[in-house]
Amino acid sequence: MMSEEELLDGAARVLAGDHSASMVQIAAGIGTSRATLSRRYATREALLKAVAVRAIEVVDGCLAPLDLERTADAAAFDAAVEELVVALIPAAHLYGFTSRDATVLADPEFRAGVDRQDQRALAFLALGQRLGRLRQDLPPYWIWYSLWGLLDAAAEGVRDGHLAPRQIGHLVLTSFLGGTRPPAQPPLTRPPADAPADARQTPPEP
After folding, report:
1. What is the reported pTM?
2. What average pLDDT is seen over the chain?
3. Where are the alpha helices (DSSP H) in the chain?
4. Are the CB atoms for 47 and 90 separated by under 8 Å?
5. Closest CA to 196 of 159, 162, 179, 171
6. Hey, is 95 helix, strand or coil?
7. Are 47 and 11 in contact (CB under 8 A)?
């Protein structure tokens, strides 16, 4: 039998491609029947609430890189940014739609979870600003929302067939850092693990 996590991840995958999918369409998309799905979740609203709770749990599991010590150095911060982006890419692909779904956004439990995650992220980004690794003229909320915007764009690009999954880690990270690094800061010394082979070569010093 399909586990609860598998069912919710499957439902999220269907909804990520079609936010208005019905219970019949969701059930077909995850390989079960409408009756079986309804035995677990009587209504579409109940299913969406469960998906929202699962989304918070999944993203919580991706945010471990945010919990750096205040004494961390610039190298540790750079490594944590890369680890964060790589971890969030699959979560955004599955659960990015929750940040735009009216039913999910009306759920107080979901909103509380998002607010808690935002506070962790803001503390992390403030550390990056203190270390001189992020621009200080940008509000931390803007930096955090910019990252999610890029992750969402990457997920949509993959779903639409315009981007290959192996490309998006490099694309998101370089685009994010290109807009948030102070002008005088050098790029990361190495590209992320899923970057194309030609991007792994360290660029020459100017």
Report:
1. 0.80
2. 89
3. 4-17, 23-29, 34-40, 44-62, 74-95, 102-105, 108-130, 140-159, 165-180
4. no
5. 171
6. helix
7. yes
